[in-house]
């Protein structure tokens, strides 16, 4: 079991913390960047790996990369990535603002590989984070526990771990082999034999569900897919240029300072700009596929609208879904072999954040304007939360639109409040793998509830 000290630890190597790492290298190259560490539980950097479908495109302009809105001249820009891999001219010739999703994912990996000061380590799964206090009760740091038994102490902690996948209660009791959440689609579908004529049910009426409904037709060629949703039908995102201005980084100030009822109105009216809708091209493709299926009399594809899944069970060698018609209240059974969930993510804070909040004695998890976790009492340590602050910072908080500017704000906040010099022994332990002088001896791990 090893213990290390760093000044700043960022948990998760998704776009939020990659943008932070870039900001640290460009804004704090002397000292802080060299003593910062990003840890990632996976073996590599990949963006939404479960949904890296070959034809899927990003729904955000390439100019909203990890750095351009903060520093258009940065070497970490998406344009420089294209130049580095020899694809800039071809991309320009495409005439599109929206790169393919696999291309964005490769860009993120390229950024991770291009870091020269901030360290990034893979296969480092975090199991718990605990606050550290001195004899006076002042919060002085954070102790992060990893699955391999090692620990990392830091003064600054940045969580960019994303929200937990949402598995609706109705499906929780089904065997794992029967249910695939969109976050694991590619990996799980690849494990299935292609020749089996699966009866597949896709749950949901938004982008991820629609993409799975489309993809499974070729991924499992003999399957019969049915799409079930609560809504009256598939809808496109509302994407007027006026509402898109609420995705500007400058819109955060107005949202953060707004009254609670105004925030609620904004979030409600902006919901269809990011949730419960589809990219127009995806919608057109699906409608054409359904039309052709009817025209040719195949009857392979089915879309069921305005129905709730009120129960799900395994019966012998199949899954039985109970569907309740929202219009009539009538109940019918739908039997299938596989359920694909386009059910999104849990709205509550991630379990790791909730575990830290419990350790701090917080009833509610709140952050200030610069994304710093609000903690009671005296503190010389800080924790920042990325991508989970939609309620206070607006609908764009979890999206690529905010990454570059938010990273700049967090970095500047750390630099502004940073004490002169580093805490004694900090950084020294990073090289030796031993606790810094005076570092607390880690206690036994504290389990973190998965609920």
Short structural summary:
Its cofactor is FAD. This protein is of the alpha/beta class.
Structure report:
Its EC number is 1.14.13.59. Pathway: Siderophore biosynthesis. It is an enzyme of class 1 (oxidoreductase). InterPro entries: FAD/NAD-bd_sf, Lys/Orn_oxygenase. Keywords: FAD, Flavoprotein, Monooxygenase, NADP, Oxidoreductase. The protein has 451 residues and is α/β, with parallel strands linked by helices. It folds into 2 domains: 3-164 and 346-432, FAD/NAD(P)-binding domain (3-Layer(bba) Sandwich), CATH 3.50.50.60; 169-236 and 277-341, FAD/NAD(P)-binding domain. The chain is 30% helix and 20% strand. It contains 14 helices and 15 strands. It has helices at residues 15-27, 78-84, 88-94, 101-114, 185-189, 207-219, 241-244, 251-256, 260-274, 280-295, 351-360, 390-393, 403-417, 428-432, and strands at residues 3-11, 36-39, 119-121, 126-133, 139-146, 151-159, 179-181, 199-203, 224-228, 302-304, 307-315, 318-325, 331-336, 338-341, 382-385. The strands form 3 sheets. Strands 1, 2, 3, 4, 5, 6 and 15 form a 7-stranded mixed sheet that branches. The protein has a 5-stranded parallel sheet with strand order 7-14-8-9-10. Strands 11-12-13 form a 3-stranded antiparallel sheet, with no helix packed on it. A hairpin with a 5-residue loop joins β4 and β5. α1 (15-27) crosses α13 (403-417) and α6 crosses α10 (280-295). The protein starts with a strand and ends in a 19-residue tail after the last helix. Mean pLDDT is 91; it is low at 420-451.
